[in-house]
Amino acid sequence: MDIPDGAAKKPTAVPDAMSEQEAAFEARIAADGRIEPQDWMPAAYRKTLVRQISQHAHSEIVGMLPEGNWISRAPSLKRKAILIAKVQDEGGHGLYLYSAAETLGTGRDEMLEGLHSGKAKYSSIFNYPTLNWADVGVIGWLVDGAAIMNQVPLCRCSYGPYARAMIRVCKEESFHQRQGYEALLVMMKGTEEQKAMVQDAVNRYWWKCLAMFGPPDADSPHSAQGMRWGIKRISNDDLRQKFIDATVPQAKVLGVTLPDPDLKWNEARGHYDYGQIDWDEFWNTVAGNGPCNKERLATRVKAHNDGQWVRDAALAYAHKQQERAIKEAA
Ligand code: BYC
């Protein structure tokens, strides 16, 4: 059928209105402004945020498990109290992040479904076992240390609720990092056996912490767009390098050796050179084949199911309150 010239060229109202919204979005991103939940945003921007926030929230929640194992075995009341507070903080971080995802239209039930079915990702580091008490200190020093390095730039993320959640998270992670480092300092002043425990924990965690920053920039499918949208501010490799540069002097003060024979200062680059991360192991763990993947997921699903009665009771209470408020208003 022939379409008359005029009709074919006539623009429809919808694409024009959309491009205006898109232009406003792009202008705000270019001006380094914040996007808020009520603002129009491209579907791909929303999807990327939900993907990253989901990975982040689940990391906080699953990340409670390896340290949680040590609450009943902490060596003193002081260490136990610190560890309970820290693990509780991680749960809180997960909740801020689930709330940030809710502002994008993705509900908590949907996200938890993704986690419990094994579809959603979380940081590969939490699929390794915590074998001795020094592991708890090393998680604070290195795992929380890497998380801070990654999360400080996220405080400037272009999406308002994610950026604001990160401000409080970073303050709490700072305490987590210091308590871990302090616990290790104490052990390094102890017996030869205690010192060996710290070194063993550092040996097992070092490379896995470097992988927390994600794959190399060249193999990172989401980095370029994430950076263009101002979601990510510093690339995976640059953050990894910043973490290594900051950690080497801390290791010296502590008196431990970082397990990398290639780790040396490069005067020309003004950074430490470092060896090869085992990316095959990383991708294998991300795919669900780490030493603790299945155990972590099963523990997490059980904890969720065990808590069902609390959620049911809270829901019933909220309904009762609502009914009372309606009666009073009538
Ligand atoms: N582990 O293109 P890329 C904490 C995935 S918990 C597993 O670079 P992006 C704590 C990535 O998701 C807080 N998967 O992606 C808690 C993507 O998969 P999909 C930890 C990883 O998003 C308790 C694919 O690989 N911090 O502090 O641009 C106790 C390609 O990657 C990992 C966060 O979660 C990984 N390590 O950048 C103690 C930070 N890395 O979606 C401490 C928040 C990458 O294509 N997240 N993948 O299937 C981020 O900053 C970014 O998502 C990443 C990755 C830098 C991790």
TrEMBL record:
<dbReference type="InterPro" id="IPR052703">
    <property type="entry name" value="Aromatic_CoA_ox/epox"/>
</dbReference>
<dbReference type="InterPro" id="IPR009078">
    <property type="entry name" value="Ferritin-like_SF"/>
</dbReference>
<dbReference type="GO" id="GO:0097266">
    <property type="term" value="F:phenylacetyl-CoA 1,2-epoxidase activity"/>
</dbReference>
<dbReference type="InterPro" id="IPR011881">
    <property type="entry name" value="PaaA"/>
</dbReference>
<protein>
    <submittedName>
        <fullName>Phenylacetate-CoA oxygenase subunit PaaA</fullName>
    </submittedName>
</protein>
<dbReference type="InterPro" id="IPR007814">
    <property type="entry name" value="PaaA_PaaC"/>
</dbReference>
<dbReference type="GO" id="GO:0010124">
    <property type="term" value="P:phenylacetate catabolic process"/>
</dbReference>
<dbReference type="InterPro" id="IPR012347">
    <property type="entry name" value="Ferritin-like"/>
</dbReference>
<dbReference type="Pfam" id="PF05138">
    <property type="entry name" value="PaaA_PaaC"/>
</dbReference>
<dbReference type="GO" id="GO:0005829">
    <property type="term" value="C:cytosol"/>
</dbReference>
